Amino acid sequence: MNGIGNSPLLEVFLVLAISLLLGFLIKKTVIPFVLRIAGKTKWKGDDIIAAAVSPWILFWSLLAALLYALPVLRGSLAFTARHESLFRSIIHTAFIFSITLVVAAIATRLLYSLSSEQDREYASTSILGNTLRAIIYSIGLMLALRLFGIAITPLLAALGVGGLAVALALQSTLSNLFAGLQLIASKKINIGDFVQLEGGQKGFIKDITWRNTDIETAQNNIIIVPNSKMTDSIIENYFINSPEVLFNVSVGVSYDSDLEKVERVCLETGKKILEESAGGVKYFEPFVRFYQFGESSIDLRIFLRSKTFGDQFLITSDFIKTLHRRFREEGIVIPFPVRTVLIKSQT
């Protein structure tokens, strides 16, 4: 292409046009083909890589054309000849930063994909994604600085000394940061788990950030707990072994009731509710325990099992309504509290 007359500008224009055309064709034909092939494989990584690279095809085509154009314009434009080294460094820096962004996007999406494949959301917390991105961006920045002739070793030494002073000033922040990483690494608390805090607050873990853990309550409020307090507190995790929850419903029956019949009706009702409810554990066999002679009734508990902590409330409601109807049909009485009051007459 150097033989195109004596017009380097025309040559540069043609190179830019051809590069952009090739980039457009690759983006519109090659990338969709790769995505279709990737969609047929079990590994999600190829889909993630192809999707992350696609938006940058035209930009990289432009940068490649500019790199080709620099030596072509050197002889005809004095400005280009004087600053060719600077232009080349800028183009290389643009390459590095764009590739850094792509690598960061691929790495974080692969991290999230890995967590979903393991049926755990511990990897998708903000703190892990942000930390991974920060590391990749730092590497990209150091490579860019080297292009401009800036020595990295003295800079790292200076940052190390300055980092000690910053660490002393930000003890609380760093304590929460490392506490958050510890929470994630231990895998005792994961995104989506239902937990009860030492103070009695309950909710679902929504996110673990660099400073705090966000817990969503049943009232749709967010409890914000510093990570350092989370690691030092006693926390009950309802999901750590299994998200299923065993719960009970209490009821009292008349002293005249046939307790064998009461137990049978309760078990039949409980089994029916668990099988019909979307949140019920269908394989679970309900059981009944009589536990006390009350003031006006014999009290018992019916034990049921739900798939998650939140499912128990709808199951409890349906069970109470159905059991109340069955008790009426079977002639089983739920007595009102009765008290005998003796009034002494004063004479």
Give the key terms.
single chain; 347 residues; alpha+beta; SH3 type barrels; Alpha-Beta Plaits; 5-stranded antiparallel β-sheet; elongated; disordered N terminus
In short:
This protein has eleven helices and eight strands.
Describe the structure.
With 347 residues, this protein is α+β, with helices and mostly antiparallel strands. It folds into three domains: 8-150; 186-237, SH3 type barrels (Roll); 245-330, Alpha-Beta Plaits, CATH 3.30.70.100. It has helices at 8-39, 45-53, 57-74, 78-82, 84-117, 126-147, 152-169, 171-186, 227-232, 259-276, 311-330, and strands at 194-196, 202-208, 212-216, 222-226, 236-237, 245-253, 287-293, 298-306. α1 (8-39) runs antiparallel to α2 (45-53), α5 runs antiparallel to α6 and α10 (259-276) packs across α11 (311-330). The termini are far apart. 17% of the residues are buried.
Q: Which SSEs are present, and which pair or pack?
A:
Elements: H1 8-39, H2 45-53, H3 57-74, H4 78-82, H5 84-117, H6 126-147, H7 152-169, H8 171-186, E1 194-196, E2 202-208, E3 212-216, E4 222-226, H9 227-232, E5 236-237, E6 245-253, H10 259-276, E7 287-293, E8 298-306, H11 311-330
Antiparallel strand pairs: 1-2, 1-5, 2-3, 3-4, 6-8, 7-8
Helix pairs in contact: 1-2, 1-3, 2-5, 3-5, 5-6, 10-11
